[in-house]
Amino acid sequence: MNSFTYSRATAVEDAVREKSTHPDSAYIGGGTNLLDLMKENVERPVHLVGLNKLPLTTIEPTPDGGLRLGALATNADTAWNEEVKSRYPLLSQAILAGASPQLRNMATDGGNLMQRTRCYYFYDTATPCNKREPGSGCSAIGGYNRIHAILGASEQCIATHPSDMCIALAALEATVRVSGPNGDRTIAFEDFHRLPGNTPERDNNLEPGELITGLDLPAKGFEKNFTYLKLRDRTSYAFAVISVAAALELEGDTITDARLALGGVAHKPWRDKEAENLLKGQPATADTFRRAAAKVVEGAHGYEHNTFKIELAKRAIVRALKQAAEGTQQASDVFLNSNP
Amino acid sequence: MLHQSTKAPGEAVAAPPPTGTVRLTINGQQRELQIAPWTTLLDALREYLDLTGTKKGCDHGQCGACTVLVNGKRINSCLTLAVMQEDAEITTIEGLGTQENLHPLQQAFIDHDAFQCGYCTPGQICSAQGLINEGKAHTEAEIRELMSGNICRCGAYTNILAAVKEVVDAKTA
């Protein structure tokens, strides 16, 4: 790890000012990803602005009937929050499918959006990587790329976004609240993260110095018919090979509203509105689900080691939609339902 | 390597590392350290406070050997800076029990032979105490899932599960 200075902010405005007046500085919330990257010399900030005294840990209702997650609420406190569990169980399930209890106790909701890819070449400073060092090349294309993207990738970068929580936030149409040198603004979740294009070094659309202060969930939580299906190389504590957040609203057997987002397949949480439109107004049958799944992977492209993900994604989508339609109990329901 | 220089030979020597005073509350005791801001909580415990019960395994938050409790919640001490934990109540394995008066989890690990080399054990026990504080795990499946942040290279999982289950059951009986 490089040497750096540290300051602790006690108000959002102070944090933003501190960040803006220190070139090459970084915000640090839970630190679970940033410190890891600093130990690998992938990130080398010369100053850290400590956020953990900012009053951004609350989870509270919004005037329009939704729920606001403070950016510094931990992933654990969010997943186990009674309102989140009952009104947005898709979000609870997604959070609990990720990381470990220790990491979820440290990691913050804002930080979850800011975590960087786990592409092995991004982490390995001995290899070229356009995300880490623009213009140096992509080692994953033509390298070992089993965990890499099949959708929305570019010739510059085929990295994936590693989050589970963000896949649920994409499906739920959350809004990101930010403060920056030029004031406050909100960003629709689908506009927050970026595809790699020719600038893979940019993961998201935050402007320099901007700080996430909260996440707003709209009133609609799809609490009856939802699934977060995560397929991974071991049963717990592993990143997704493919994950699917599926949420349906049903009238009888007819789908009246649908959300579908995938993790492990792209540089950003991959929500497909065209596939959602193929579900709406249709009967909740395997045929309907297969048509939506085919739509999602229509433009998919496999590389040497990850081509299997295209078929896997299709099957995972069909299974997730079926589970959502049937209101099937899920793996982590044991925690959500068996405890007071 | 806390103070490793990145300067080439002959280059101007960098200014001394900016150490500062960090006040930590560890196992009920106030401790004051003069450390650089990049000192992780794990390194502060092991290198500056001689609390070597907390182990450094992967140093990347993947193995759980460095698990300690901060305000009763389990965290990976390798992925937080000591300076970020001022004002917090930190509990390490040294604060859970003593040789004369073992913590129930320590006794259960002995009774169930829940280790071989023992390197992961302090982290397993701190993690299990965190799991008990959380109150979410009751069944074996739940304990397995919520202990998944602690890796045991010897593969003593079966006995670790039995030890944790015994203490969980005793707490809820």
UniProtKB/TrEMBL annotation, chain A:
Gene3D superfamilies: 3.30.465.10, CO dehydrogenase flavoprotein, C-terminal domain (3.30.390.50), Uridine Diphospho-n-acetylenolpyruvylglucosamine Reductase, domain 2 (3.30.43.10). Keywords: FAD, Flavoprotein. It comes from the Bacteria. Residues 1-222 form the FAD-binding PCMH-type domain. InterPro entries: CO_DH_flav_C, CO_DH_flav_C_dom_sf, Diverse_Substr_Oxidored, FAD-bd_PCMH, FAD-bd_PCMH-like_sf, FAD-bd_PCMH_sub1, FAD-bd_PCMH_sub2, Mopterin_DH_FAD-bd. GO terms for molecular function: FAD binding; oxidoreductase activity. This is Xanthine dehydrogenase YagS FAD-binding subunit. It comes from Hymenobacter mucosus.
TrEMBL record, chain B:
Gene3D superfamilies: 3.10.20.30, [2Fe-2S]-binding domain (1.10.150.120). It comes from Hymenobacter mucosus. The keyword Iron-sulfur applies. SUPFAM superfamilies: 2Fe-2S ferredoxin-like, CO dehydrogenase ISP C-domain like. PANTHER family: OXIDOREDUCTASE WITH IRON-SULFUR SUBUNIT, OXIDOREDUCTASE, IRON-SULPHUR BINDING SUBUNIT-RELATED-RELATED. It comes from the Bacteria. Keywords: 2Fe-2S, Iron, Iron-sulfur, Metal-binding, Oxidoreductase. Residues 1-20 are annotated as: Disordered. Residues 20-96 form the 2Fe-2S ferredoxin-type domain. This is Xanthine dehydrogenase YagT iron-sulfur-binding subunit. GO terms for molecular function: 2 iron, 2 sulfur cluster binding; metal ion binding; oxidoreductase activity, acting on the aldehyde or oxo group of donors.
